[in-house]
Backbone:
């Protein structure tokens, strides 16, 4: 009899071991993507909603909070991709594609002034765009790619 768990728990969300099926991946992966969008969109519009004094006061803590939450969510995304890649019989190393969009964005968040002074803003933004496009393609591919039936080297079938 198949287990019908749609959302994975914190243990599975933050562990790259084992396997998850397509439905679990779709629900959790795209929920994390929506959370990342909400966080970044909220940070983008928050300064307009606050007075200049409050915006200046909250700028540094909000940047750090955003980075910490983004790192946690990207780690969760990596673990979800790793377990889904295991389900299709591939190594979790392919999940490192996720960081192709994350690293340039993190670099521009931390060293934005230096990047701007060096005239590299357009290049970093383009690399981040390409990385995020790769993440989108990986997410769609893993959302539709069927898993291997039965046991494989990464564990028993999540549908068993």
Residues:
């Amino acid at each position: 009899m198949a287990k019908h768990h749609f959302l994975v728990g914190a243990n599975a969300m933050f562990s790259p071991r084992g396997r998850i099926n397509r439905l679990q991946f779709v629900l959790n992966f795209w929920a994390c993507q929506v959370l990342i969008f909400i966080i970044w969109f909220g940070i983008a519009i928050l300064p307009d909603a606050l007075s200049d004094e409050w915006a200046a006061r909250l700028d540094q803590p909000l940047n750090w909070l955003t980075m910490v939450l983004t790192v946690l969510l990207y780690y969760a995304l990596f673990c979800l991709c790793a377990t889904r890649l295991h389900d299709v019989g591939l190594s979790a190393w392919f999940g490192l594609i996720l960081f192709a969009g994350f690293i340039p964005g993190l670099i521009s968040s931390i060293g934005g002034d230096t990047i701007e002074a060096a005239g590299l803003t357009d290049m970093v933004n383009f690399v981040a765009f390409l990385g995020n496009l790769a993440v989108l393609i990986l997410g769609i591919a893993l959302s539709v790619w069927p898993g291997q039936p039965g046991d494989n080297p990464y564990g028993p079938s999540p549908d068993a």
